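Section handout, structural biology tutorial.
Before the tutorial, make sure you can parse a SMILES string by hand: atoms, branches in parentheses, ring closures as digits. In the record below the ligand is flavin-adenine dinucleotide, and the chain has 372 residues. In the tutorial you will relate the predicted structure tokens back to the input. Do not try to memorize them.
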Amino acid sequence: MSQTDTTALLASVASLVKTELAPLASAIDQEGVYPAEFLHKLGELGGFSAAIPKEYGGIELGLNTQIDITAAVGRECGSTAFLTWCQSTCAWYLLHAPNETVRRRYLPQVAQGKLLSGTGMSNTVKHLAGIEKIHLTAVREGDDYVVSGSLPWVSNIGTAHLAIVAASVGEEGYIMFAVRGDSEGLSLNPCPEFSGLEGTQTLNMRFKNVRINADDVLAHPDQFKAFISRIKPGFVLGQLGIGFGIIEGSLKTIRESNVTTAHVNIYLDEQENELAANLDSQRKEIAILSSQAENGTARIIDILRARANGSEATLAAAQSALLHAGAKGYLMRHPAQRRLREAIFVAIVTPALKHLRKEIHDLEQQTEMEAA
Ligand SMILES: Cc1cc2nc3c(=O)[nH]c(=O)nc-3n(C[C@H](O)[C@H](O)[C@H](O)COP(=O)(O)OP(=O)(O)OC[C@H]3O[C@@H](n4cnc5c(N)ncnc54)[C@H](O)[C@@H]3O)c2cc1C
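Predicted structure of the complex:
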């Protein structure tokens, strides 16, 4: 990996974000505008493929660079940073899929943003953590599967998109597969209005006997356990890019606000220098964890703790920015109130803060029992 390449890429992303995304941020948030054109352009720059080898159409600069790209997007718009995560995470799943056919079929197009793709893995990840029942069930027919059930909210999907989801296959276990939005038997329906993230094209997916060809399967039941362990660290770490971007945007608001009201802002609990130092130390830790996630040596407990710390830091920074900005920041046209809603999303999207604390608690208990 070359530092020059990474710096040049991040500069191009920052410039695209400034000219093409920043002017849309309010419309994305308040009118539910879905930034498809921006996503395609970001894909052309390599904005989803930093962790993908050149062989599959990627730019091979590493997962940490992917997190930096997501952060550069999140500085201006948390919703689009989430979409960047959805797209790059689908590429991450495909890269690590044990089945070469599905990887060759979709990875280059997804990595380059030509085929937009959602990840509907929240239910499965929560199910595996003992939080809820699995919503999709599959019946095996040879190496194909027939899937029914529904997922309440999946972002970055549509009839011309792809989605990557999982289903249970009775006693056999689980499968993970890709499905096109216009597949027979699949219907996509709008969700009730959200208080943020409206421009993420978040839809309800209903499967009624949808046939999944073996060529679209990322992992069959006998491959699933190893596969989910392989992809989970990158899936979870990637979301930190959304939080880092929101923190950077919040720091900007704090600095701007201190130009005129520092004399009273100094009484607030969270000051710019502490928030910035915390961000800096989290980024250093994530750089190490990212390379571990790429070579498959990351410890899941470290990843979960880092993600929980990231959620807390994002909430703290976004709240502090609004407190610094005061009534001005409470105006609908000011980004501080939007960032606070985006920060809350970082803490409720799977794995939510409560989910992370549950998994960390369960792992700690297990370690204690093993030591006893
Ligand atoms: C704007 C937006 C975009 C999203 N985009 C995506 C996406 O792209 N992909 C995706 O996969 N998800 C997406 N999600 C979902 C998200 O990741 C979370 O999973 C979702 O917000 C639900 O989490 P929760 O914390 O509310 O659920 P929780 O409160 O943790 O879980 C509630 C679950 O527990 C069950 N339950 C209730 N009582 C009990 C009980 N006594 N025993 C056992 N179970 C019980 C409930 O039925 C429910 O299923 C999105 C959500 C939002 C708001």
